[in-house]
Amino acid sequence: MMGRRVFLLAAVATAASTARLVQAGTNEVRISAKKFEFNPAEVRLKLGQPVVLILTSEDRIHGFKVPDLGLRAEIVPGQETRVALTPDKPGPIVFFCDVFCGEGHEEMGGTLIVEA
């Protein structure tokens, strides 16, 4: 019984250590939104590498939609919106604002470029 407890504690400690390594290895990319544009509008990511997009708004509520990944988030001024993803296919992935922000809204978008 005592050996089993030691094994379980070791397994839990190893899992917690692995989780910290995964978090430490996650890249963060900041993207800001303001009327009619994302900055940067082109973001390069590595295939299979976890990333957290940190989204902020400079002026009003915006949306962040990535249909190919099934992602959608709202970007609120004064707050950070975090979107975690791990790209699993190389190539371009389009994102855009899906909250109407005035004339020019249709042009508000960008591209995640996943490199192998």
Walk me through the structure.
With 116 residues, the protein is of the alpha/beta class. It is built from one helix and nine strands; from the N terminus they run αβββββββββ. It has one helix spanning 2-24; strands at 27-34, 37-39, 42-46, 51-57, 62-66, 71-75, 81-85, 91-96, 109-115. The strands form three sheets. A four-stranded mixed beta sheet has the order 2-1-4-7, with no helix packed on it. The longest helix has 23 residues, at 2-24. The radius of gyration is 19 Å and the shape is globular.
Rounded to an integer, what's the Rg over CA atoms? 19 Å
Order of helices and strands: HEEEEEEEEE
Widest sheet: strand order?
2-1-4-7
Strand runs, count: 9
Fraction of residues in helix: 10-25%
Mean pLDDT: 83
Beta-sheet strand percentage?
35-45%
Descriptive keywords:
3-stranded mixed β-sheet; 116 residues; disordered N terminus; globular; 4-stranded mixed β-sheet; 20% helix; alpha/beta; 9 strands
Secondary-structure blueprint of this entry?
Blueprint: H1 2-24, E1 27-34, E2 37-39, E3 42-46, E4 51-57, E5 62-66, E6 71-75, E7 81-85, E8 91-96, E9 109-115
Parallel strand pairs: 1-4, 3-9
Antiparallel strand pairs: 1-2, 4-7, 5-6, 8-9
Quick overview:
The chain has 1 helix and 9 strands. The chain is an alpha/beta fold and 116 residues long. Strands 2-1-4-7 form a 4-stranded mixed β-sheet, with no helix packed on it. A 3-stranded mixed β-sheet has the order 3-9-8, with no helix packed on it.
